[in-house]
Amino acid sequence: MTLVVPFDGSELAEAALVRGAEFGTVFDEGVVAVTVIPERNTNYARERGWIGQEESFDIDAIVSTLRDRVAERCPDAEFEHVVVDRHAPSGTIARAIRSLARNRDASMVFVGSDNAGHFVSSVSTVGGNVASDDAYDVVIVRTPISAKRTE
């Protein structure tokens, strides 16, 4: 069994990765962080902070940066990335994550999302779509690590 964490580099994705690692230690399960990257979609990459305003899209650099960020937070986690079409239709990213979770025999998926937890049945979010699969349990992480440190 495996614990899967969709990872886009956001604060909530990092928090979900940390939670996944904590559960992985307790349950003695491996953790896989997965990033889905729309091919050559510069706007998508900029919106997520993967590249700067003046940088061109370089998938190798993006993957390397995200892999390093995962290793910083969870050194024992595996990192995988999936490339989808540049103009992938709605739901493609969630389908890629669900497919990887099923292929890895995930027991749990940790989703960092500030809106997936408000109404899990919402189909407008990746978190909501990932949560709709009943092949695994879903943990929704809504509190960034930085907020925990200030309490």
TrEMBL record:
Residues 2-119 form the UspA domain. Gene3D superfamilies: HUPs. It holds the Pfam family Usp. Signal peptide: none annotated. This is Universal stress protein.
